[in-house]
Amino acid sequence: MKLDDIDKKILGYLQHDAKITNKELSAKLNLSVTAIYERVKKMERSGVISQYITLINKEIVGLGFQVFCHVKLEKHAKDAIDSFEKEVTALDEVLECFHVSGDYDYLLKVLVRDMEHFRNFMVTKLTTLKYIGSTQSSFTISEVKNTTTISV
Description:
alpha+beta
């Protein structure tokens, strides 16, 4: 789908507030509510808009300890990769998992309460997964930038 400037503005507003109404978008963009509705529906159908979510303040819910874990698999056969990916996606503490190039095979973004929770996660969950050769973890000192907004 080719996005024009109005579509891009709609996406910008929706990324900052997914609860903004078509009427509010209409007023901001000087278009009819129907025109806004049709544009949003077209972007949803085409997959440009994949979902609407709620972002939760991790500190307030007691999950403010963020860790990045590098994981190296002991073997790189398809069954090992498939097994690891299936198992790691089932771990609630893992928010994101990327298959990456370099010294390690995967980069995980993990969210836990504190160091004790992280230790328990490592000992009872992550390192028990099949095919894990080694891990290395980095703990977040401060969050410099964290956004879900994509500039289009």
